[in-house]
TrEMBL record:
Protein name per the record: Transmembrane protein 236
Coiled coil residues, start to end: none
InterPro entries in the cross-refs: Uncharacterised_FAM23-like_TM
Transmembrane residue ranges: 53-75, 96-114, 134-152, 273-293, 332-349
Domain of life: Eukaryota
Protein keywords: Membrane, Transmembrane, Transmembrane helix
Source organism of the structure: Erpetoichthys calabaricus (Rope fish)
Residue spans of biased composition, Basic and acidic residues class: 206-218
Ranges for region Disordered: 195-226
Amino acid sequence: MRSGKKFKYGIYELLQFSALCVPLFVVMQRFASIVARVRKAQGQPVGDANTVYWLIVASSIAYVTSVALVIWFPMKYMIAKKKKCFRERKKWRPVLLAYMILCTLPCFAFLTAGSQVQVYNNMAPPLHDTLTELPVSLVIFSLISVDIIEKLRKFRLRGQIQVMLGPVLTHLTQVATVSGQMRGSAEDNIMREANGSVPGVPSLEHVARPRSSSEHSTHTASSTNYGTTYTSSGRLHCLTASDPRAVIFVESFILWFDTVELVRVATVLDVSVSGWLFPIYIFSYISLLRLVLKPRNPMLSSLGVLLQDVPFLFIRVGLVAVFGYITPLLFLFKNFLVSLTFIYFNFLTRLKMFNTEQMF
């Protein structure tokens, strides 16, 4: 059993380290090829262009090596040994924070630099490399993979996980018998006669006195029951299958489709040679910083609107006004509706004019 856990831990660490290295190597290699192509277009010797290319590649290898030895591996060791600085990490995830700073930020920076190098050197549009598809998709995919691995650590990969879909028992209450209720009512009548009250008519003290929790529990039955695993029989019982480990993969990709679409717009030639490239990459990176928080953090909903939907709404309105329909209007509508409903239901409904409970 211990060997299986160690094997799973080793696989997780290998995949996360690969997600740290591979995007950096790919992006830096593409940047080095752009710089070498620009130098050749300017008429410089082929040897000088190749020298610059290999210097940039060697710099990327040196950067990954130094980052792994100085930051990544020591951080992983302290987390595994549950050192004091990482012991109470209940609301944030240090691995995602380190990955965002060490990998995602440099990748976005060199993607922007590669486009600007071609713009400043007046590269012809047919020779302009927009860094399409592979580098951009690889950066986002690696980030999502690190997030999925962090969420999967608390689950075992083999065997089934029983999901409780029914009501969960929260408390037990005592149910009184019929004889107990009759005895209680008889005692109440005797007490009323002793106090001079009429039997059958409750006294003021009895009406005004609220029942205690023990009295209330003896006259009420519990409405909760034990949670049971939902099972369905029939021809379509296979469609009721649900596992939290599979849901993690679905939710992790769906959560970042909006950011992926905005980063994709930056690879369009007209956008990549304009100043719109900077706000796209800057606000896309800011929206990704939400990964640092735990998945169940109550601040995620507010940060999702403030860091993603509101900035993306203004960026998409500007892109559509300047370049036309280069971004789907579906995401524009999504940003608008999410921002509007968040403000309305969380803030405007508290105002007197929007509070219908005071009208009836």
